[in-house]
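Here is an idea for our session: we take a single protein and study its fold together. To get us started, please write out a protein record for me. Start from the sequence, derive the backbone structure tokens from it, and show both lines together. Go ahead whenever you are ready, and we will take it from there:
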Amino acid sequence: MKAKTPAAWEHVQLAAKLADLKDDHYRTVLTLSAMLELFIEKGIITREELSSKADALDAQLESLISASLHPMA
């Protein structure tokens, strides 16, 4: 019979997983930021185009989320 893992140890494991996720998230955002800066420096896109696209995607996602929360509206 397998012994139960103490709740305190489960919390430690959960905290470790969260720390790993935070590190992964930081590295992903850092890489994306570096890529965007290079695109801007090389003249592939402008900051205005990037901002406009981000605003458009944000509005689209907000609309999709709202529609899924209120399907009959």
Notes: The two ends are 53 Å apart (CA to CA). Residues 7-41 form the longest helix (35 residues). The helical segments are 7-41, 47-69.
